[in-house]
Every structure is written in C-alpha cells, then in structure tokens.
Design a protein that fits this description.
Layout (H helix, E strand, L loop, with lengths): L2 E5 L3 E2 L5 E8 L8 E8 L6 E7 L4 E3 L7 E6 L4 E6 L8 E9 L4 E4 L3 E5 L2
Parallel strand pairs: 2-11
Antiparallel strand pairs: 1-3, 3-8, 4-5, 4-9, 5-6, 7-8, 9-10, 9-11
C-alpha cells in the first residue's frame, strides 16, 4: 500500500517561497512509469494541477505557474518537494501529493495540507 504524506508550512507571508514536501512510503519514487504530482484546491474552486516529477527525475509544470514553480526529489529519503516562489493570497489552497501511472489515473493521494498566504 503506497502512502503519501504532505508536510508544509501552514502559513506563508506574501512574496515568500512556499516549500512543501511529500514523503512516500510503500513504494519507490524511482519505480518506472510513475509520475509524482502536486495538485491544489483553492477555497471554493476546483482542483488545479501544479506539476509533476517523473520516476526518472524529469519535471513538468503548469504553464500558468511555471515561472514560479520548481519540483525536486531526494531519492535517499523517497521524497519530492514543491517550491512555489513569490506567493500571493491567490496561492492559498489545500495542497495534495498524488501518484499517477503514465497514461493512467491518479491512484494514490495524500490527505492534503492547508497552506494560507497572509501577512
């Protein structure tokens, strides 16, 4: 059973960088054909795909967030990390980690973590 656990700051000030780590257990982030994904849901809105890092370490980002987003990984800790720079209150959301197999659906999700951007 794969489990994903988000750990984030809870509260971030405007213009700062949001850093959120997803820790994976029950499966390796280097296992072929899996994409490790960050998704968020702002209050009262739908899910928004932020980006993913693949089993080989390649990264892909939402065009609307690309200039502010970086996803990296630490294979020794089986973790991947989101960094979102220059945050504004519009980045307030519940942030989720999820796993997707190439060409398939999201099969495992973290419980989500609330991140609020406020001074």
């Amino acid at each position: 059973q794969v489990q994903l656990q988000e750990s984030g700051p809870g509260l971030v000030k405007p213009s700062q960088t949001l850093s959120l780590t997803c820790t994976v257990s029950g499966g390796s982030i280097t296992t072929s054909s899996y994409y490790w994904t960050l998704i968020r849901q702002p209050p009262g809105k739908g899910l928004e795909w932020i980006g993913h890092i693949t089993y080989s370490g390649s990264t892909y980002y939402s065009p609307s967030l690309k200039s502010r987003t970086s996803i990296s990984r630490d294979t020794s800790k089986n973790q991947f990390t989101l960094q979102l720079s220059s945050v504004t209150p519009e980045d307030t959301a519940v942030y989720y980690c999820a796993r997707r197999q190439e060409g398939a659906y999201y099969d495992y999700w973290g419980q989500g973590t609330q991140v609020t951007v406020s001074s």
